[in-house]
């Protein structure tokens, strides 16, 4: 190794460590954060398989396709949560720091991959800074339930790194390592189904394995051939064919996840949310994400899904996307990074665009942009120097811009992280920056109720129901609060509403039965305890209460 290459390697390591340190400084405060009542209970605190740690039963559950209550098939994500519980119990700060660890590694790997691909260390570092410190990524790091995001992205980056080494010197071992990392990523979150598409983009730029002429009229490029399964195949087609195993595995995982979600009613039907509304919202969201990247204010954990999208917004968003795509395509020979960065952004957002919707689907989500915005960061990092090259004192302008941007990112991200301190701060902020947010009112009500602030909780539950009158969980929780207040008639009314919409809501049957006992209606209570046990035969609470109710009935006779 020459002195120059040794110095270059040391410089790259120093830059990578610097990126990790400044990101760590900004995010370290998450170690003092609590769990929030937004899926943290389902993923960790109230999940008996997770809280029991790495037991044989829990590991089997993680890999099984059943009993996930409509969650994706994500065994590695479940195992990571189990490992946290095994090591740290339910100390929330340690779980948050585990998320931060993955984000730090992702930031370092992104820099390493881009620098390895391009040899442009400062531009690669700029991309990594944007990724590591952009406020829109706070949700993926500061939310324990977003573990699947940071963990799957770790395997995304490892897949890219392995692929870059494979592309530099192809061999079966490196190819299999790439495929193994990709497989692990799919087992953390199905978001990686778009990664084969990204590998093709990297083949075009910056790896230069794929040229446009290999599929067109360039005879020299088209005549370049390689051996594939005993046949001579044009090099361009081979580059595409080597992605076939990745694509096939992606389709298998898509099928597995759709199959596991459908029995639980996790997939939202077109009758509930029309396809036309999904397309309109997706087009507008593509533009809104760009806006949030450029002006990252009013970030929230959930953006309510619109009842309709104005036609002019839809048409305008579609037209703007087509114009940018046409411009990137027109500049492809001189500035290939524009097309690659733009298509990275467009392509990786497709799985979370809402065309297929699962569960309580938002209009958009900050966590959805964690990987897609890397494409736009690349576009910016390679585009800005070309703009400044036309000015005098280029290096001074670039350094000044980077310094100002770094300072702004550190301050705004620090502030955004503070909103995730606990459920109350999170959803109070969400209500300030969004409107008609039924879920935010509900979750804030639940958090306030837990703190004993009952009157405030009732106000937020009521507002949640004003926005969404058939929100079952809000009716259920409001019934529980009214029972505690001694307003049993109102509680019964809310439980009956829940059961009218969903007759198989076991907990509502149990709570309704308890409320009926308070009104002296033993026979009705027995019926609802029995219904609860029909739905959940192992419900200990319902069993014990049923025994007591039957005993009281016998005494009354």
UniProtKB/TrEMBL annotation:
The chain crosses the membrane at residues 12-30, 97-114, 126-144, 150-167, 179-202, 244-261, 273-291, 311-332, 339-361, 367-384, 396-414. PANTHER family: PROTEIN O-MANNOSYL-TRANSFERASE TMTC4 (PTHR44227:SF3), PTHR44227. TPR repeats lie at residues 438-471, 472-505, 506-539. It holds the Pfam family TPR_12. InterPro entries: O-mannosyl-transferase_TMTC (IPR052346), TPR-like_helical_dom_sf (IPR011990), TPR_rpt (IPR019734). It comes from Candidatus Desulfatibia vada. Keywords: Membrane, Repeat, TPR repeat, Transmembrane, Transmembrane helix. This is Tetratricopeptide repeat protein. Coiled coil: none annotated.
């Amino acid at each position: 190794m020459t002195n120059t290459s040794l110095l270059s390697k040391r410089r790259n390591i120093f830059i990578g460590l610097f990126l990790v340190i400044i990101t760590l400084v900004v995010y370290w405060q998450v170690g003092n954060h609590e769990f929030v009542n937004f899926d943290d209970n389902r993923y960790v605190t109230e999940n008996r398989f997770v809280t029991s740690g790495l037991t044989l039963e829990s590991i089997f559950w993680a890999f099984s396709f059943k009993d996930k209550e409509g969650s994706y098939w994500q065994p590695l994500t479940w195992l990571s949560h189990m490992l946290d519980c095994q090591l740290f119990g339910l100390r929330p700060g340690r779980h948050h720091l585990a998320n931060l660890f993955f984000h730090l590694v992702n930031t370092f790997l992104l820099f390493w991959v881009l620098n390895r691909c391009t040899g442009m260390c400062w531009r690669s570092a700029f991309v990594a800074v944007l990724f590591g410190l952009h406020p829109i990524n706070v949700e993926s790091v500061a939310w324990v339930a977003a573990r699947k995001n940071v963990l799957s992205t770790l395997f995304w980056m490892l897949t890219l790194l392995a692929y870059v080494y494979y592309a530099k010197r192809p061999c079966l071992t490196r190819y299999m390592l790439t495929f193994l990392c990709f497989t692990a990523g799919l087992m953390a979150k199905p978001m990686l189904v778009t990664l084969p598409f990204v590998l093709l983009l990297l083949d075009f730029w910056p790896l230069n394995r794929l040229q446009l002429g290999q599929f067109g009229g360039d005879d020299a490029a088209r005549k370049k051939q390689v051996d594939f399964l005993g046949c001579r195949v044009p090099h361009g087609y081979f580059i595409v064919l080597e992605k076939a195993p990745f694509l096939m595995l992606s389709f298998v995982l898509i099928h597995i996840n759709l199959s596991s979600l459908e029995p639980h009613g996790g997939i939202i039907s077109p009758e509930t949310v029309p396809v036309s509304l999904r397309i309109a919202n997706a087009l507008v969201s593509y533009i809104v994400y760009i806006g949030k990247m450029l002006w990252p204010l009013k970030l929230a954990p959930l953006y309510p899904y619109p009842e309709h999208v104005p036609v002019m917004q839809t048409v305008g968003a579609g037209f703007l996307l087509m114009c940018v795509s046409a411009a990137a395509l027109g500049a492809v020979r001189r500035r290939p990074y524009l097309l690659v960065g733009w298509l990275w952004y467009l392509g990786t957002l497709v799985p979370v665009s809402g065309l297929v919707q699962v569960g309580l689907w938002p209009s958009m989500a900050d966590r959805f942009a964690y990987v897609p915005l890397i494409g736009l960061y690349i576009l910016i990092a390679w585009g800005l120097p070309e703009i400044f090259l036309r000015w005098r004192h280029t290096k001074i302008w670039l350094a000044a811009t980077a310094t100002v941007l770094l300072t702004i990112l550190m301050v705004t991200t620090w502030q955004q992280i503070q909103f995730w301190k606990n459920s109350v701060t999170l959803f109070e902020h969400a209500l300030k920056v969004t409107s008609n947010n039924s879920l935010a009112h509900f979750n804030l009500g639940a958090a306030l109720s837990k703190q004993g602030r009952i009157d405030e909780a009732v106000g937020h539950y009521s507002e949640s129901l004003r926005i969404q009158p058939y929100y079952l969980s809000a009716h259920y929780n409001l019934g529980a609060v009214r029972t505690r207040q001694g307003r049993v008639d109102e509680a019964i009314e809310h439980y009956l509403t829940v059961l009218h919409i969903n007759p198989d809501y076991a907990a509502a049957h149990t709570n309704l039965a308890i409320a009926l006992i308070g009104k002296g209606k033993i026979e009705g209570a027995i019926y609802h305890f029995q219904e609860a046990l029909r739905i959940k035969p192992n419900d200990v609470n319902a069993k014990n209460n049923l025994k007591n109710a039957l005993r009281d009935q016998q005494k009354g006779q």
